[in-house]
């Protein structure tokens, strides 16, 4: 951030508190409100009708869409927590209609991870949520207090997370998934399912996210088809049958299921057949994580990236 920051005059369509510091290079849309003691950096773009309540810092090459709301203590776009980061120019892109409650932190990408962190539209991040570098978050997700998202995580649309959940780097969370509070997510979570904390270090797939699917407008037939797929793939009987899950997945696909079941099966195949450690994105990483451990951060859902 520039060392000669100064308060800027408020245009008629802005409301900037006299104690706020907005760099002259920042690009503010119509109707932006910047509250007391906020800081906006020179490479920041804020869309129309964004609100920064107080003590909010938005810095870096950060672009924010329209109607986003930032509560006190939120820090957006500061340098990522990755020891491989060398100050290269990277980016944070945020869509429309997002709410970031108190003390949310979001980091831009890294050169090693593609250079971008992206957040979609209409997401709700509660107190203390952390989104690390190179993450992609879809639309209409809800993150309860204290969710910690490590680097390179991909979260699809309409996911919900209970408080205190930690998400390992390179994990993918499928659309309409629900993750219970205080879970440790170290493997990909299938779409349409509920994952909860289990004994030991892993989470487990408990059932389909029936309530969430009903609220989203899924038909009874679609929900029943997903429930039947869950029973064939994840039930206690399925686990004790001795039949490999990949075999069952191919049988389901051979029966030409509906679109949602097909997506579920193909999602699982990516993780089981092509992924590493149950994480499909882990198989795509192009860095050598063992080349220099002294220069790479080791994190497991704590928020810094590797």
Q: What do these coordinates show?
A:
This protein is of the alpha/beta class. It is about 15% helix and about 25% strand. It is built from five helices and 28 strands. The protein has helices spanning about 210-215, 220-235, 235-240, 245-255, 260-275, and strands spanning about 15, 20, 25-30, 35, 40, 45, 50, 55-60, 60-65, 70, 75, 90-95, 100, 105, 115-120, 125, 130, 135, 140-145, 150, 155, 160, 165, 170-175, 180, 185, 195, 205-210. The strands form three sheets. The chain has an eleven-stranded mixed β-sheet. The protein has a nine-stranded parallel β-sheet with strand order 2-5-8-11-14-17-20-23-26, with no helix packed on it. An eight-stranded parallel β-sheet has the order 3-6-9-12-15-18-21-24, with no helix packed on it. Helix 4 packs antiparallel against helix 5 (about 260-275). The protein is elongated.
